[in-house]
Amino acid sequence: MRDVVPDVLMFADTLRSKELRHEVPLALGDPIGYAERLGKRHVLAPSLEFPRLQAADIEAELHPLEEFGWDALVLSGITTDEALNELMLRFAQGLGVESAVVPGTFPLALADHLRAQGIELTADQSLFDTRRRVKNEHELAGIRRAQAAAQAGMAVVTRMLREAEPSNGTLTLDGEALTCERIKAEVDRVFSEHGAAVDEIIVSHGAQSAIGHDAGSGAILPGETVVADLFPFDKATGCYADMTRTFVVGDPTEEAREWHRLSLEALERSLAAIRPGVEGREVHRVACEVFQAAGYPTQLTKEPGQVLLDGFYHSLGHGVGLDVHEEPGLGRNGRALVAGDVLAVEPGLYRQGTGGCRLEDLVLVTEDGCENLTSFPYEVELT
Length: 383
Known about the structure:
Blueprint: E1 8-12, H1 18-23, E2 32-37, E3 40-45, H2 50-55, E4 61-64, H3 70-74, H4 80-95, E5 99-102, H5 108-116, E6 120-123, H6 125-133, H7 137-163, E7 165-167, E8 170-173, E9 176-177, H8 180-193, E10 196-197, E11 202-205, E12 225-230, E13 233-234, E14 243-249, H9 254-273, H10 280-293, E15 317-319, E16 326-330, E17 342-345, E18 348-351, E19 355-358, E20 361-366, E21 369-372, E22 381-382
Parallel strand pairs: 3-4, 5-6, 14-22
Antiparallel strand pairs: 1-2, 2-3, 7-8, 8-9, 10-13, 11-12, 12-14, 15-16, 15-17, 17-20, 18-19, 20-21
Helix pairs in contact: 4-5, 7-8, 9-10
């Protein structure tokens, strides 16, 4: 018996809804309707967006708002939100939708309105997450551009740290203290030159670098670890990249050298293990074994309920695409990888109050392994 393909409904703008951006690859700030009915795709949008939608060559039937009585709804005295909810009801009914799956982010008020009129809705976020895993050519092109921007930004971090000079216990560049803020401002500028933008930039130093997502602040000192984690998105497609490197200006401590050596070994072994069909949890285990053999705790050695703050305390990585963190996960519950997944692989070691080290590459899962989309040195010592 052939599986029945469920109808699909979405209503959102494509800047915030990654599920809809995957289907309609345009940056649209106002919400549009989207439906899949009997294998056909339909888009409900203001007519002013039609030229862009047509130019994007979306394989969908386009429906103007007026087709479902938008003019009368606007003049009826109800609120705009109420009018949009009724418009979506007419859109769904006009296509013959009686039941549909929706993302977990589907608007609650709209869901209530549709259900009150007999349309059955089922939230199935995993279905939409799965649809986004295999990246299309449009998305891959955006990811590659974002990665090029990330590497250009990392080159800025490297240059500024390398050119810095010790002065009175801190680092100076061009006669001024070298701070995390100065580096991040220059990285942000370079991202813009590459058609990319960023929500946040992590350049942390010293004890800050032991805290996974501390964005970093203040003056950088000689001899302490500096973790630069860059995850810009390509403005044209909304697709992200993600990469991390760790540096020390001057002589690293023996501890920092060991962190870097083990993190690089864990990264190399993890990348060698990636291929379609391998579970993300297995790749995570490969990395954990490197650290465990050296005596460091990991998520696989900690007691249930224990809060782990030192050693390798996080998962190995995550999917990257229209979100910087998406399926599949490379952690204790990571599922099987498929060709077309894009993964950030980021082993690291940390000691609270002292510092940390993280190395992260972005890879594309291929039919027989993976392609490393990152081509940037792993050097730690900048003198």
